[in-house]
Amino acid sequence: MTDRRGAGNPVWMAYEYIAMILGLGSLAVLCLLWLPCALLFHAVLPGRLSQPFGRWMISAAFRFYLQILTVFCACRFDLSEIDRLRDEGPLIVAANHPSLLDVVMIISRLPNAVCIMKASLMDNILFGAAARLARYIRNDAALDMIIGSRHELDQGAHLVIFPEGSRTLDFPIGPCTSSVGLISNRSKVAVQTLLIEFSMPYLGKAWPLFRRPELPLTCRVRLGRRFPPPTNLKSFTAELQTYFRGELGHDQPLAPAPAA
């Protein structure tokens, strides 16, 4: 279990608030620093240059951000298994979605990852410019999403998608949509599952943004089963959800992860 020897100590609780402010603030600063650069590069660079550059920069920035959380915010990340996918491709990378940190952890290890993002995030002033530079895919038009995903997979990318479509409410995983199976079926690309485990549901769907974390926070991502492209979407979606629930367990909202 996670070491909570500092729990209830006023000094430790003050540190948790400071760590929360530092963690959220440093991410906002990184996004604001990259915003004008992303706008400029998107305007002047051709797509064949701006796309890989934009993805590499997001991956590098997320690696740096996780280092900030590790050094200053008592967070521990065990992400080494994702590295085994780095030189593989194309792949559909499907993960459960307990926290806002999920995409940060995955992309920090996959420099050629492309995300399917909510349209509201693509239009967000903090994240939109960087996402457009990296040619991330909007989720507000199903046909365009499928065509865009197939195109990126044809180019050898890692397509990151969360089968639930949003952060988990019904732990260990909520109802899965058919999007993963549909994209896999149309692109003929396998689905590689990732199993994300946190020591607590920090920044989950039910965790307010400015609620302090209970530190130390430990996070682990494991490689799961790889599914071949499906032929029956309904059966595949049910099988995928059953697999996630079986691997992540039913008793605890989030399984504790070991320190890195």
Give a nutshell description of this structure.
The protein is α/β, with parallel strands linked by helices and 260 residues long. Helix content is 45%, strand content 15%.
Q: How would you portray this structure in words?
A:
The chain has 260 residues and is α/β, with parallel strands linked by helices. It has one domain: Glycerol-3-phosphate (1)-acyltransferase (3-Layer(aba) Sandwich), CATH 3.40.1130. 45% of the residues lie in helices and 15% in strands. It has eight helices and seven strands; from the N terminus they run H-H-E-E-H-E-H-H-E-H-E-H-E-E-H. The protein has helices at residues 10-44, 47-72, 102-109, 119-122, 128-133, 142-154, 179-187, 233-248; strands at 75-78, 91-95, 113-117, 137-138, 158-161, 191-198, 217-227. A seven-stranded mixed sheet has the order 1-7-6-2-5-3-4, sandwiched between helices. The radius of gyration is 18 Å and the shape is globular. The two termini are 14 Å apart.
The counted number of beta strands is 7
Number of helices: 8
| Mean pLDDT over the residues | 91
Computed over alpha carbons, the radius of gyration is: 18 Å
Termini, distance in Å?
Answer: 14 Å
Tell me roughly what share of residues is in helical segments. 40-55%
Beta-strand proportion: 15-25%
CATH architecture: 3-Layer(aba) Sandwich
Q: Quick one: CATH class?
A: Alpha Beta
Shape: globular
Could you tell me the CATH topology label.
Glycerol-3-phosphate (1)-acyltransferase
User: By helix and strand content, what is the structural category?
Assistant: alpha/beta
Give the low-confidence spans.
251-260
Biggest sheet character: 7 strands, mixed
| Count of structural domains | 1
